[in-house]
Amino acid sequence: MRKDDARAVVETAAFQRLVGRKRAFLAACFVFVSLFFLPLPVLTSFTTLLNGPVVGALNWAHIYSFSQFAAAGIVALLYWTVARRFDRLARQAREEASGSEGRSG
Amino acid sequence: MNVTALAITVIVLVMTLVITYWAAVRNKSASSQYVAGGQIKGWVNGLAITGDYVSASSFLGLTGAIALTGYGGYYLMMAIPIAFLVVLLAVAEPLRNLGKFTVADMVATRFRARRVRSVVALNTVVISVFYMVAQFVGAGVLTRLLLGIPYTVAVVTVGILMTVYVMAGGMLATTWIQALKGFLLLAGTVVLTLLVLASFNFNPVSMFDEAAIIYGEEAVLPPPPAGLVGGLDVISLQVALALGTAGLPHVLIRFLTVPDTGAARSSALNAFFMIGFFFLAIPFIGYGAAVIVGRESIASANPAGNLAAPQLAQTLGGDIFFGAIVAVALSIIIATLAGLVIASSGAFGHDFYTNVIRGGEATPREQFLAARISAGAISVLALLIALGARDFNLAFIATLTFAVAASANLPVILLTIYWKRFNVSGAITGMLVGLVSSVGLVLAGPNIMGENAVFPLTNPALVSVPLGFLASYLGTVLIKPTRDQYESYDEIFVRTNVGSLDATAQTADSGVGARRP
């Protein structure tokens, strides 16, 4: 990859949109993961707040633990969906860059 | 000796040798040796990642820990869902777009300096060889427990098999052996979980109820808070698990075996769901074993509870199911070992020999030879260490592996991909500080020093991971940058986001992927 080719891609509107959307998605995931996942080890290892029963002997600690798999699964599927949009923008960025190169060349 | 178990294990081993023969005919270059020619499909790779990542300690150790200690055992797997989110969202696709054969290739794409490649390769070897020794010792102990075969015979047999797989069949054989193991693992887990649930009329709550009735309510409660140090140790373990996975070389190189970005993404997603399902099933198998087999019986078979899953299989499904679960457990070790050998032989053969010593000038034939010789040498080295480490307490090695991966590898991988100002000085200081601090804090901690520990936590990640990031940052801003910056960040930035700009790079399924440059 030549330096000029890379610069041409970076300067396309599609690439800027792609990077902006990716950053926003990753930032939102980071915040969600931190807020949803971190309390579990903190609450179970420092407190007994999650010891209360939910159904029979099944307690909140287990429910919270199992829900982490579901939450992570939803984030993963969400990424799968938005990644298709990222793919389209990436393709667009390449096309825009090669188009502008063709005009300038 | 259980003849049925031995027979099923032999059948599985014969299948792996048939796969190796098939792959050996096709293994003709360094590319096929290290990354199966980059032609593995996403779903196969997902299955192979499952087989590669889930070690025997997860399958046997975790079920045993939950069976004997209840929720306490859960701490050993709590962060697994986040671990694979990190891999899926932040690492898999950029790694595929930047890497070639090894993790060091990815970092070297940005920084040409040989010393950067050398340090990444050193990290890979440290992590992989330690992990290999732990797997070898585990294989020896398990084979003795499960099949009654002496330790030395078991370790040497596993070592020979592993060497044959990797030297003859390379990554192609390793991939399909790992995929086979991933399939067997998932099938075994599904059957065992269904049998457990059937014993409780498919009402999981009644399983928890019975555990609480037999062993008291504390059997299903988190262990009582153990003060500041105890709590921080739990958090530290979660940091290592959550961030270490995305720094494990033998897991990362799996993303270099697929043809494009889309396949890297689908591998990560498939692996995420398969591994997630497996770990979600573990508490059911663990509590099921406690109720159905009984804690006393589990602890008398093995004090750490490592035989809980096979004992449960014996109780619920008789000799044949016991044999199948034993075969799964042993194939797990062999498949993980094969992946570790490929990762560390890449660090030796490709990074040290081809690129550092020969300056990238080796002929394709020399590279292929170096790859195979490195694989053989690494196997023998780990085998010899394992034979000597028989009675050594290896419990800390898994801790060390994840902590080193999270502290020394992950900061540099992430910053190489995402931080524009990152430079050679930052990469080297980050990796060395991450490596030295994680190893040093384990050596100074309770695992090694016992009551005289200078560092109070058994897991160093809570301290060593921030140190790895901090050193990367400080190295970058304080030490004068060298001229070793290979490609401008623009090129890295574009390649991580849209793939290579080569005309051949377009792919059918995503349109953005790239054949490796």
Would you mind describing this structure in some detail?
The complex is a heterodimer of chains A (105) and B (517). Helix content of chain A is 82%, strand content 5%. Chain A has helices at residues 3-10, 13-37, 39-46, 60-104, and strands spanning 53-55, 58-59. In chain A, helix 1 (3-10) packs across helix 4. Chain B has one domain (3-391): Sodium/glucose cotransporter (Up-down Bundle). Chain B has helices spanning 3-26, 30-35, 42-53, 56-69, 71-74, 80-98, 103-110, 114-147, 151-199, 204-215, 227-244, 249-252, 261-292, 295-301, 308-357, 364-388, 395-418, 424-443, 446-449, 461-478, 489-498. The longest helix of chain B is centred in the middle third of the chain and has 50 residues, at 308-357. Chains A and B meet through helix 1, helix 2, helix 3, strand 2 and helix 4 of A and helix 6, helix 10, helix 11, helix 13 and helix 21 of B.
Topology, pairings included?
The complex is a heterodimer of chains A (105) and B (517).
Chain A: H1 3-10, H2 13-37, H3 39-46, E1 53-55, E2 58-59, H4 60-104
Antiparallel strand pairs in A: 1-2
Chain B: H1 3-26, H2 30-35, H3 42-53, H4 56-69, H5 71-74, H6 80-98, H7 103-110, H8 114-147, H9 151-199, H10 204-215, H11 227-244, H12 249-252, H13 261-292, H14 295-301, H15 308-357, H16 364-388, H17 395-418, H18 424-443, H19 446-449, H20 461-478, H21 489-498
Helix pairs in contact in B: 1-9, 1-15, 3-9, 3-13, 4-13, 4-15, 6-11, 6-13, 6-21, 7-8, 8-9, 8-15, 8-16, 8-17, 8-18, 9-13, 9-15, 9-16, 10-13, 11-17, 11-20, 13-15, 15-16, 17-18, 17-20, 18-20
